[in-house]
Design brief:
elongated; alpha+beta
């Protein structure tokens, strides 16, 4: 009995969790945030920023001295020069150890320019990431609004089917009572079939709109739905902002422009790096080294001659540690490398860097022109969408009045079914046009918000 209760409780919890998952409605802010946190392209671009940071670490390292250690093991057979500089005819083995360091003191400010480039690279990668995030955010908002648009169209289509179904019932009763001809019933039934077809098409469009957003979010579309929101129509923005004001703000704040400006700075540093090859390079180096040598078949002994009595010769221990200590030596020095002639390669590199700088400068001009054209087009679209929305409101009001009159005429038998359906279709089209105009206006103003730096989820 207890086992059955436990199973029942578990099933109830699972069903509750499943129902909750199915009932979840995604808000616009949740969709945008989810896309920004989980989109694969964003994650890949974020890794480019990490790579740029590593380039910065490398550039900083160019200013530091390096340090290397070395150790060798060698065998000598036959005749060779020993540690004391004498030729030795014996087999031996030996080791040598060294520790060396070096630092570049001057190389035509190349390291400085490379470091500045690495800093620009980090900033540029962050801007590129922001550009991608902005584009994805706009696409998510557009897809979200597209779902809301199709939801409203679906409601209208459902209402029309419901109205037509009632008309079929009413006309059928009138036909059965002999008040209306059976042809009227056929016409209304045909209209019902047409309305059902439209409902199916709208439902398919809604499903595709949801699929499009889930693909942007890179999640399953099973049970996915969005929360409906009350859309405010920001006409004030169009009335009180000009395209010039929007452009002036965007030109100072858009990451596309900032990145293009960084590209110019980077190309100027390319010129400085190329010019650095004209200058001499000065480096400083230092090292410490020692060695050990052992003659095969002999003990590690060293001959000691008494300076006061050359005939007094003795042998002392000359093992590994003793040789390492005795052979320890140090060195330091400067190295100057002066370029004199390198077959015009440096001159060509400088010229190529200058040409590239001019090319990138044109890219900035093009980016500014594209931004201005885009904003002017978006502003014109917003104004046109507002006018279309206002006209659609007037049209819908007129069609509503026309439909009321037609309804009265149809009910009194003055208007036949075909004429009545023509009026009703005009009303349906007017409702659809108003919805499309509303969402078109909202999206075009969202584009303007985008260039004004206003969050798209507001």
């Amino acid at each position: 009995m207890n086992k059955n209760i436990i199973i029942t409780v578990i099933l109830t919890i699972l069903l509750s969790i499943s129902a909750t998952a199915q009932e979840k409605l995604w808000t616009l802010e949740e969709c945008v945030n989810y896309a920004l946190e989980n989109n694969i392209s964003i994650k890949q671009t974020a890794l480019n920023t990490d790579l740029a940071n590593q380039d910065l670490v490398t550039a900083k390292g160019n200013f530091m001295p390096n340090l290397t250690g070395s150790a060798t093991q060698n065998w000598n057979f036959g005749s060779f020069i020993g540690q004391n500089g004498n030729r030795v005819s014996a087999d031996s083995r030996g080791n040598s150890f060294g520790l060396n360091t070096g630092v570049t003191l001057f190389n035509g400010f190349r390291n400085t320019s490379v470091y500045k480039q690495a800093q620009l690279g980090t900033e540029s990668s962050i801007l590129q990431l922001n550009i991608l995030k902005d584009n994805i955010s706009v696409n998510v908002v557009n897809s979200y609004l597209n779902i809301l648009l199709n939801k409203e169209n679906f409601k209208i289509a459902e209402e029309q089917v419901s109205i037509t179904e009632k008309q079929v019932t009413q006309v059928a009763e009138l036909v059965d009572s002999g008040v209306r001809p059976r042809a009227d019933l056929y016409e209304v039934q045909a209209q019902l079939a047409s309305d059902n077809e439209r409902l199916t098409n709208v439902e398919n469009s809604l499903d595709l709109a949801k699929l499009g957003l889930t693909q942007l979010l890179q999640i399953s579309n099973q049970g996915f739905d969005v929360q409906e929101i009350e859309l405010s129509l920001p006409a004030v923005l169009v009335e009180h902002k000009s395209s010039i004001e929007i452009y002036d703000y965007a030109i100072q704040n858009r990451p596309e422009i900032k990145k293009a400006e960084l590209d110019i700075e980077n190309s100027l540093l390319d010129i400085e790096i190329a010019k650095s090859a004209y200058y001499p390079t000065l480096t400083f180096g230092a090292g410490v080294g020692t060695s050990y040598q052992h003659f095969q078949g002999q003990e590690d002994l060293r001959v000691v001659i008494d300076p006061n009595d050359p005939t007094n010769i003795s042998f002392v221990d000359n093992g590994f540690m003793q040789q390492v200590e005795n052979n320890l030596g140090y060195n330091l020095g400067f190295s100057l490398n002066v370029p004199i002639f390198n077959r015009f390669q440096t001159k060509a590199s400088v010229n190529k860097a200058k040409i590239n700088n001019e090319r990138i400068a044109f890219s900035l001009d093009q980016a500014k022109q594209d931004l201005q054209s885009t904003i002017e087009q978006a502003y014109a679209d917003a104004k046109a969408a507002l006018k279309q929305f206002e006209a659609s409101q007037v049209s819908l009001a007129a069609q509503n009045e026309s439909f009321k009159n037609a309804q009265e005429s149809y009910n009194s038998g003055v208007m036949n079914s075909f004429e009545f359906e023509q009026v009703r279709n005009r009303l349906v089209n007017a409702e659809a046009n108003l919805i499309n105009a509303k969402y078109n206006f909202v999206f075009t103003t969202k584009v303007l918000d985008f260039y004004l730096g206003i969050p798209l989820t507001d």
